[in-house]
What does this fold into?
Amino acid sequence: MSKSGHHVLVFDSGVGGLSVVSEIRARLPKAYLSYAADDAFRPYGSKTESQLRARLPGLLATLVNMLNPDAVVIACNTASTTALPSIRAAVKIPVIGVVPAIKPAAEQSLTRAIGVLGTPGTVRREYVDKLIADFAPDCHVLLKGSTRLVAEAEAKLAGQPVNMNVVREEIAPLFAGRVGADIDAVVLACTHFPLLRDELRAAVRQSVNWIDSGEAIARRLEDVLSDITKCELPTHTQTAFLIGPDTDPVRARAFTDYGFTKTIGVLRR
It folds into this structure.
């Protein structure tokens, strides 16, 4: 027997969006979620803006036509800061993007020194510069882009050990020098990075708040869905669609831990 409710598609380049999924499930436990990971094209942080804008609108339009969700969450900072307007123009349903949590980090910082840890494709965007100018004009802000940490998060969710040397090497520039020594808040401006929160905490000696946007995205989704009439939900199990060949059993179990009991590989050129 079918049920009525809201169907949400969560999209990311890989497993990073699962950090957002956990917040959505905590706030909206009755929501039916589908997940799509663009494994074939990750890491997004190493791609150009033109490459992402050429790929993402058509890909999201295809996924929306295939799955018929009520709303889409782009659980990827790089995709959101690069292609969100063009994605919204390509689909006819609400699209919620991820905004790096610079505003709450600035509000919480006592030292007025904060870090932004994202992919290279996020930290070099003008969008991030504007967030800093609007919400942290009185703060010293250090930016660090890393694709190696994305790979470590993907490995962790695949059941492999995290290389702590890589974690320490990647975040060391944030905490170097006088400003780095004062940092008391770091924005996790990549949805992969909350999956490494324990490792990040263990890699630094000073007291740091590691701040991400997952909870804020879940609240925003709740507001959006409150204006959408509930519809008949799919009768099949909640599913993760992995675009590319990376569908091994260990990785599939990681998605199962987040409520996606079926994993399907989708090949796309």
In short: The mean pLDDT is 92. The first helix runs from residue 18 to 27. DSSP finds twelve helices and twelve strands in the chain.
